[in-house]
Automatic annotation (TrEMBL):
Record domain G-protein coupled receptors family 3 profile: where: 209-444
One Gene Ontology term, aspect cellular component: postsynaptic membrane
PANTHER family reported in the protein's UniProt record: G-PROTEIN COUPLED RECEPTOR 158-RELATED (PTHR32546), SMOG, ISOFORM D (PTHR32546:SF26)
Keywords: Cell membrane, Cell projection, Disulfide bond, G-protein coupled receptor, Glycoprotein, Membrane, Postsynaptic cell membrane, Receptor, Signal, Synapse, Transducer, Transmembrane, Transmembrane helix
Broad class of the protein's primary localization: other
Protein name stated in the entry: G_PROTEIN_RECEP_F3_4 domain-containing protein
TM spans (from-to): 211-232, 244-267, 279-297, 318-339, 387-408, 420-438, 453-474
Highest taxon listed in the record's lineage: Eukaryota
Similarity section: Belongs to the G-protein coupled receptor 3 family.
InterPro entries linked to this entry: GPCR_3_C, GPR158/179, GPR158_179_extracellular
Membrane protein topology class: Multi-pass membrane protein
Organism ancestry: Eukaryota, Metazoa, Spiralia, Lophotrochozoa, Platyhelminthes
Subcellular location(s) of the protein: Cell projection, Neuron projection; Postsynaptic cell membrane
GO molecular-function term, one example from the UniProt record: G protein-coupled receptor activity
Length: 513
């Protein structure tokens, strides 16, 4: 290893020299800025100021080779250098050889490149039924590719390490399972699409059941953008000022993010999609209902205060509280993502150590599941994002919001805002609880995914759209803007410490008690 340049020099010396001589020389004229050594100045005079240089055309990469003494794969890059003779005596004086360890180099073994052709892995996969697929960020190893079933075939995917080991045994004539590492044809009923177990894949109704909700979502998201612009333009209106216009804008942002989850549900489930949907759902939910929670919290602080003066929570403080809630949600989702990926990696390693051919598929079921549905005496398969119990934390958040709403049930609020927020929390709690019960125990992996998508779409509007209408439309409409009448026996007086010392201004002195 490292001496390939010697053979290359012997076979290509004259060709390289002729190539260099034909190349136009580079002019170098020494001046005050060039501090040249005497030897270099003499050499320039011999060449008449014209210097022949070596370019990338004369260099070459050597094929990868395994260095037994180091136990590593090495690749070399060789560049020739010229001697110090005259122009007529131009010759190659030697070679500079750089060696690199391939374990740290990202090499796509599925690409038939001339430099790394000896590592080409596509011929390791069964050419008739499988094809090589590169896995990035794995370095040079048998784990940076796998053999994927071609279209019209099924079985599952085979790891590169497993295939290469069986392939080498097959080439040596030893006993191997290489012939079993191939995919079978899809059934005649669905030759173009079948699952890894051979079942026909379900066909989605992209014209009506999925396209129509998508159009409605697009319209409502456009409405959200228009409402946000209207709120900003009319931010000095007393109704908008009472609701704190910046919180309304943040609330609309959360609603828009929740609407985006319906777009993501429209797509075919993949590992990436099944990770993105919970993030959008969690952040959108936290922004939307976190905004309502801090608004109720401000009413609670002013209503249950036992001080002589009214406690007023500034808008700046509300934004800080909301930012803290969102930060907790982001941390929770980051921990969930890290735990899921780590669990999947550990499970995959355990299954591979047991020589399980379905290690990738089984470890992936932590986030992506297989579902089945019967249609016309046939079983159709489909993929669906896995359901996790971690989603129950939203119910705890809603219960906290309802507790705050209960505490301020008798408190006066501008435009009955707390009543509408209470209704929004109840709507989200009831609909989400029903949705989770049905999804978890009844239909999730046994119902056509188009109907599951419609159920998710309906849930979105029974919660998000209703909440947006209660928070934005109702306080601004003519029938909802009537203020609550101040009552003499307001509950705030029950909590005040100074009401016993207050004297009614219209009472005569003799009746003061």
């Amino acid at each position: 290893v490292g001496f390939e340049w010697l053979k290359y020099h012997h076979d290509n010396r004259e060709r390289l020299l002729a190539q260099i001589r034909r190349r136009v020389g580079h002019s170098i004229v020494p001046n005050s800025k060039h501090n040249l050594m005497p030897f270099t100045s003499k050499l320039l005079k011999q060449f008449g100021g014209q210097v022949k240089v070596v370019t990338e055309a004369e260099s070459f990469w050597t094929p990868p080779a395994f260095a037994c003494q180091f136990g590593r794969w090495l690749v070399s890059y060789a560049v020739p250098f010229l001697n110090s003779g005259t122009a007529d005596q131009l010759d190659i004086g030697g070679w500079v050889v750089l060696q690199f360890e391939l374990e740290r180099v990202e090499i796509n073994q599925c690409r038939n490149e001339s430099t790394f052709r000896s590592l080409y892995a596509n011929n390791v996969c069964n050419q008739g039924t499988t094809e090589c697929v590169h896995i990035p960020d794995q370095g040079l190893s048998d784990t940076n590719f796998y053999c994927k079933c071609r279209r019209y075939f099924h079985h599952g995917n085979f790891s590169g390490e497993q295939v290469r080991m069986q392939y080498l045994l097959h080439r040596k004539g030893s006993a191997s399972n290489y012939s079993s590492l191939e995919c079978g044809p899809c059934p005649a009923e669905c030759p173009g699409s079948c699952a890894t177990n051979g079942d026909c894949l379900i066909k989605h109704d992209l014209d009506i059941l999925r396209a129509l909700p998508l159009v409605i979502q697009t319209f409502l998201m456009t409405v959200c953008v228009l409402v946000a612009a209207i709120v900003f333009k009319t931010r000095r209106n007393r109704v908008i000022k009472a609701a704190v216009w910046i919180l309304l804008e943040i609330f609309i942002l959360g609603v828009t993010i929740l609407y985006l989850t319906v777009f993501l549900m429209y797509l075919n489930p993949t590992y990436e999609i099944c990770f993105i949907i919970p993030w959008f759902r969690e952040i959108g939910f936290t922004i939307t209902y976190g905004t309502l929670l801090v608004k109720v919290y401000r009413v609670l602080c002013g209503f249950q205060s036992r001080k002589a003066h009214r406690v007023h929570v500034r808008d700046r403080d509300l934004l800080k509280y909301l930012a803290g809630i969102v930060a907790v949600a982001v941390g929770f989702m980051a921990a969930w993502t890290a735990a899921t990926l780590d669990h999947s990696r550990r499970l995959h390693g355990t299954l591979e150590s047991l020589n399980c051919s379905s290690a990738d598929q089984l470890s992936g079921q932590l986030i992506l599941e297989d579902g089945k549905v019967r249609k016309e005496d046939k079983e159709l398969s489909f993929r669906v994002c896995a359901v996790g119990y971690w989603d129950a934390e939203k119910l705890v958040f809603l219960l906290l919001g309802l507790f705050y709403c209960y505490c301020v049930r008798s408190a006066p609020s501008d435009y009955s805002e707390t009543r509408y927020i209470t209704a929004a929390f109840i709507s989200e709690l009831v609909c989400s609880l029903a949705y989770h019960v049905i999804r978890q125990d009844v239909i999730w992996d046994r119902t056509h995914p188009d109907y599951v998508y419609l159920m998710y779409f309906a849930r979105c509007h029974l919660t998000v759209t209703v909440t947006a209408a209660l928070v934005i439309v109702c306080p601004s409409s003519g029938t909802c803007t009537a203020r609550l009448k101040t009552r003499a026996n307001n509950r705030s007086l029950m909590y005040s410490q100074v009401d016993a010392n207050l004297v009614r201004a219209d009472e005569p002195d003799g009746h003061r008690g």
